[in-house]
Amino acid sequence: MRGGCFVLRNHFPLVPLCIVKFLSALAALLPLSAAVVAAPGPFVVRGYLPATQAHKAYLNYHHGATYVVDSAVVIKGHFQFKGVVADPQQASLLLPPPGTPYTHMLAEDVATIYLEKGAITVTGPGQPMQAVATGTPLNHEHTVLTAQTAPLQAQLAALYAARRRQPAADTALARQTDAQEARLNQQLQGVYAAYLRAHPANPYSLYALAEYEAYQPDVAASAALFQALALSVRTSPQGQLMQQQLARLQRTALGAQAPDFGLPDPSGKLVKLSDLRGQYVLVDFWASWCKPCRAENPTVAKAYATYQHQNFTVISISLDNQSARAAWLKAIQDDGLTWTQVSDLHGFNTEVAQQYAISAIPQNFLLDPQGRIVAKNLRGDALSQKLAQVLSAN
């Protein structure tokens, strides 16, 4: 699933960021085990990004049980961070352009780096997302794999930009674009899979597997690659987290019984998913602040208008926070969302997001009348095409 919004999960606070590329939440959940990689200790991050317009840089990571959001002044593209990590870990370096809220940035304003003992240098001639971190083992492996995927990622970025310019009514062009995206995603899967098979004992492979999982809807394929990793990697704390993530994804695999939930609608009335049993149901995750979600809403509205009298309905779960209640209600009105809307306004911390392993939006799950998952992440024409297929068979 691409073109969505995600959160950086670091145990505690969740920072939502609108992006154009999905990043698996697992990759930022916990640091790697010190028993698997180099000993923890002090780090320094020195950055030089001459093209950035940011006045401040932010570094998100955790030190033990403490979630850290450090900041540094950017002077003519230069900035520096110092700190100590209890264990090596993935971190996010954020450089918001002037006027852009820290909590809502595009992917190009965020760089992924790995904090571990030593001196780390972050450089790049363009946007932060294209920056390269060097100086330590995990950053080296990340740079190697990123170089291999860069041509495909560039093609995807160009495809997303073209999609945003496409007329909504041009369904033939939309189908062509979706097919191109599927081909590129499949090629990316191949690159990640090849890396994993070639580096079964490298601790970085768990992060590579998290990226592979983001492009692979079949959890069984991810589980097979995980089992092929070295025992030392699989039994590390990060490896155990991957096992838990794969188990969660298995609960929402195709053919699985969708987890039941109950959430209040805007009036406070509790709505249960099981109350909708007997119909085809689209379980749709979104938020008012998520631009790709808002762009997808007309597609869902069209499908609902077409098929609502043919044993089909929608339940949309907003991952807005309590402070965004007014924005949620306004988005429902502005986008003409006439079907069931629910939320406890706990954002990505809501229990249902955990049940469905949601780390990026928009996402959706199509359930059959028995509550089994028959399709996932139906975007654009794919939603109407799938509905036409399953409803015509009944």
TrEMBL record:
Gene3D superfamilies: Glutaredoxin. GO terms for biological process: cytochrome complex assembly. It comes from the Bacteria. Keywords: Cytochrome c-type biogenesis, Disulfide bond, Redox-active center, Signal. GO terms for molecular function: antioxidant activity; oxidoreductase activity. The keyword Disulfide bond applies. Residues 252-394 form the Thioredoxin domain. InterPro entries: AhpC/TSA, DUF4369, Thioredoxin-like_sf, Thioredoxin_domain, Thioredoxin_ResA/DsbE_sf. It is found in: Cell envelope. The keyword ATP-binding does not apply. GO terms for cellular component: cell envelope. Residues 1-38 form the signal peptide. PANTHER family: THIOL:DISULFIDE INTERCHANGE PROTEIN DSBE. This is AhpC/TSA family protein.
